[in-house]
Write a structure and sequence with these properties.
Number of helices of chain A: 7
Number of strands of chain B: 0
Number of domains of chain B: 1
Oligomer: heterodimer
Helix content of chain B: over 70%
Shape of chain B: globular
Number of helices of chain B: 9
Radius of gyration of chain B: 18 Å
Chain lengths: 159, 175
């Protein structure tokens, strides 16, 4: 920016400052202050209406509604927990049923694979959880899983 | 110790609002006119600003710089009005195929038409700084607080605004 530009900028600044001030139009002040007074004098809605408190009947009605809704909300959870605790078949592994199915169709599974699913499953009983380590706790998890996979491969191939 | 103006405003003292109007109205109107480009719209904005101040008066007790706070509210009010105007104008253009620019038309109706038109052509941030500096009489530090920028940014925008005004007016003089 040259010295000339700087002088011109200052001239523009002076020109901006010399613009006539914008005086409020007649009545603007009174309109604004009347609107402000209106706001100041108006009470907030909650204050004007007054605070509502529930009477005895209202409390009873609310309690009744809560009691009616509660079983719908927590009922399914309790049913699920009860099913797990009671040992429902929904939560059991399908593996031993495969063993039983294989027996039915005459497929002989490798002995070590049967050992992997445990003696009860080898007899076709559905008594075992999903994780291979739950089948025979003397095996390492990797070993049990590997035997389980081998048994599945055999089943898939034979069936 | 007598209550400060901000405390009186927070208490809902109508006289305090009158005092605030007498102290700031002319500067607020000037700044709003520069930002919007229309004196009647500037009056509406200032009217609404005071109503908003009265509604949110409980917040004023904690305000340290009352002038900066009020000018910040002014800037937000102008921004809201501008957004509404843009939406309304878009609808108007779609309906009437009007390619005019209402803000500029209003600006050119002000005294010193060329300067007003040049100010209206400034980018919004630069126009706001000019309004707050020239019409609002704020310092760059106060403008920084109002616009949420640093003092240096406010000063730079003001310099850029003057440069752009100089270039615009020079082009018009050459024609």
């Amino acid at each position: 920016m040259t010295l000339h530009d700087g002088m011109r900028d200052r001239a523009i600044e002076r020109r901006l400052r010399s613009r006539p001030a914008l005086a409020p139009s007649a009545g603007h002040r009174s309109r604004v202050l009347a609107a402000v007074r209106g706001v100041l004098e108006s009470r907030p809605l909650a204050e004007a209406v007054g605070r509502h408190r529930l009477g005895g009947g209202g409390v009873l009605a609310l309690a009744g509604m809560a009691a009616a809704i509660a079983p719908l909300l927590i009922g399914p959870w309790w049913l699920s927990l009860a099913a797990v605790a009671g040992g429902s078949d929904w939560f059991r592994s399908p593996r031993p049923s495969l063993v039983a199915h294989a027996r039915m169709v005459g497929v002989e599974l490798p002995p070590d694979a049967l050992a992997a699913v445990g003696p009860e499953a080898a007899n076709g009983e559905r008594r075992h959880r999903t994780h291979p380590t739950a089948v025979d706790r003397t095996m390492a998890p990797g070993q049990a899983a590997e035997r389980w996979l081998r048994m599945r491969h055999t089943l898939v191939r034979e069936l | 110790m007598p209550p400060t103006l901000a405390e009186s405003l927070a208490d809902g003292d109508a006289d305090a609002f009158a005092a605030l109007y007498d102290r700031l109205a002319a500067r607020l109107l000037g700044a709003a006119r520069t930002m919007i480009g229309s004196a009647p719209d500037a009056e509406d904005v200032v009217h609404d600003l005071f109503v908003d101040l009265a509604r949110g008066r409980h917040r004023l007790a904690a305000v340290a710089d009352l002038e900066a706070y009020v000018f910040t509210m002014l800037r937000h009010a102008v921004g809201r009005r501008h957004r509404r105007a843009v939406t309304g104008r878009r609808v108007l253009v779609e309906v009437a195929h009007d390619r005019g620019r209402p803000d500029h038309a209003a600006a050119s109706a002000l005294p010193d038409d060329e300067l007003a038109a040049a100010v209206a052509d400034l980018p919004p941030e630069q126009r706001e700084v000019v309004a707050l500096k020239i019409d609002g009489g704020l310092t760059f530090a106060e403008i920084g607080r109002v616009m949420g920028t640093s003092l240096d940014t406010a000063a730079s925008r003001y310099r850029y605004a003057l440069t752009k005004l100089r270039q615009t007016l020079s082009r018009k003089e050459e024609r």
